[in-house]
Write a structure and sequence with these properties.
Blueprint (H helix, E strand, L loop, with lengths): L1 H18 L8 H13 L7 E8 L2 E6 L4 E6 L5 E6 L1
Antiparallel strand pairs: 1-2, 2-3, 3-4
Helix pairs in contact: 1-2
Length: 85
């Protein structure tokens, strides 16, 4: 169930940011959604403090603890958050 919720949140996030350029990545709702996705995947983050859209299908989230995650949907349709160096 958690995985389905994460997929739904990221899909919604990608749809919103990909279709409307006026929605800023600094929007509190977007930051909160990214934080929820990262937490549901069991990764340490705390709170997402900023995010940038890399392309139409991925975001890079910067966490309060200094971690940066690339959040995207992989070829199998699963939500993935990869720790960035």
């Amino acid at each position: 169930m958690k995985r389905q919720a994460a997929i739904l949140m990221v899909s919604t996030l990608i749809a919103l940011t990909g279709s409307a350029h006026s929605i800023a990545a600094e929007d509190p709702a977007v930051l909160k959604d990214l934080g929820a996705v990262i937490a549901l995947l069991g990764l340490p983050c705390g709170q997402v403090v900023s995010a940038t859209r890399s392309n139409d299908k991925e975001q890079v989230a910067t966490c309060q603890n200094g971690n940066r995650y690339r959040v995207f949907i992989n070829a199998q349709g699963r939500v993935v958050a990869q720790l960035q160096p």
